[in-house]
Write a structure and sequence with these properties.
alpha/beta; Aspartate Aminotransferase, domain 2; Aspartate Aminotransferase, domain 1; 2 domains; 4-stranded mixed β-sheet; 3-stranded parallel β-sheet; about 15% strand
């Protein structure tokens, strides 16, 4: 049996009628940019994220960049973040002429190690940006304690954490501002690109609303520098609004699959993802670790199991970002790049497909060197 890593068609099929009706409503309305559907989705997603404000933008990278601009980050400023993710966060920092300062991650959660932040702070530090990787939130209470002690704002990168929470408080409501991606593969994905910024600070919300549209305070009157053309369109907004009503059910299925994997793999010599009992993980990705990753990856693909690496090259080792490699080492980050492997985990996976993944992984791991 072939098991795909993901399948967008399966995701759309059961809600196709809802989507068709919603899309037709937009087509019939004649309002396609920053209209009633964007406003409705912004209100609904703000409520979902326990935030006072949500501003839709064109994509997740723009969301990070605009959030940083709203905090005053500019040329020569430093933003503390991590290097074991994709490059969008760093790309957004560098686009502003700012400098990414990478700290290592915790080996269990794979998220920013809060104990390393203070040593990375300098007079030029303008923001701290943790990434809620794979659907598990970073240790926000610890990160915020350091940030507040040094009077530094926090930007949450929530691209993989729609609906994740710590002690009931949802991702996107912890920091001064948060950035979301709605890339199709995200837990809440558009049919195309999309992003959003959430915040509980009215001053930031007002800046973001201007920045997403040329810095306009009102039409044709630009008052906010460094504005972009970055608007969530009506079609993507209405699609996201439909899919938002199904998000929690999808998350529950992702979590069910992840728990089954953890149960079935508990006796294997591989590191399994952390699943805290008191926090809500949303399992955007189910990621295991083994020093024999490349061997395991090749054999799983040979046997028809879709899998991927998130991420194979740390940001500080990317050719265009090597200049930002820190003077200190990032041993956990470097090891993760060599060992992590993502297995299929999406809501439409059948029980039979999950069982097939389990059987093949167990079979292949048994053949790996001790």
């Amino acid at each position: 049996m072939q098991v795909p890593f993901g399948d967008f068609k399966r995701q759309i099929a059961p809600i196709r009628a809802e989507l068709d009706q919603a899309i037709a409503r937009v087509l019939d309305s004649g309002a396609y940019i920053l209209g009633p559907e964007v406003r409705a989705f912004e209100a609904h997603f703000a409520r979902y994220c326990q935030a006072q404000f949500c501003i839709g933008v064109a994509n997740g990278t723009d969301a990070i960049q605009i959030a940083l601009v709203a905090l005053g980050v500019g040329v020569g400023d430093e933003v503390i973040t991590v290097a074991n993710t994709g490059v969008p966060g760093t790309a957004a920092i560098v686009a502003l002429g700012a400098i990414p300062v990478f700290v290592d991650v915790d080996p269990t959660s794979r998220n920013m190690d809060a104990t390393l932040i203070a040593a990375a702070i300098t007079p030029r530090t303008k923001a701290i940006m943790p990434v809620h990787l794979y659907g598990l939130m970073a240790d926000m209470p610890a990160i915020l304690a350091v940030a507040r002690a040094h009077h530094i704002p926090v930007v949450e990168d929530c691209a993989q954490a729609h609906g994740a929470s710590i002690n009931g408080q949802v991702a996107g409501s912890w920091g001064d501002v948060a950035a979301f991606s709605f890339y199709p593969s995200k837990n809440l994905g558009a049919i195309g690109d999309g992003g959003a910024i959430t915040t509980n600070r009215e001053d930031i919300a007002l800046k973001v609303q201007r920045l997403r549209q040329y810095g306009w305070e009102r039409k044709y009157f630009s008052t906010e520098p460094n504005g972009l053309n970055s608007r969530l369109d009506e079609l993507q907004a209405v699609i996201l609004d439909v899919k938002l009503t199904h998000l929690d059910a999808g998350t529950d299925r992702r979590n069910q699959i992840a728990l089954e994997y953890n149960r079935q793999f508990a006796d294997l010599p591989i590191q399994l993802p952390l699943i805290p009992t008191d926090n809500r993980v949303v399992h955007h990705l189910y990621v295991i670790q083994t020093p024999h990753r490349d061997n395991l990856l090749a054999q799983l693909k040979e046997r028809g199991i879709g899998c991927d690496i998130h991420y194979p090259l740390p940001t500080h080792k990317q050719p265009i970002y090597q200049q930002y490699a820190p003077t200190w080492s990032l041993p956990v980050t470097n090891r993760l790049a060599d060992e992590v492997l993502s297995l299929p985990n999406f809501p439409e996976l059948t029980d039979a497909e999950v069982a097939q993944v389990v059987a093949v992984v167990r079979q292949v791991v048994s053949t790996l060197p001790a």
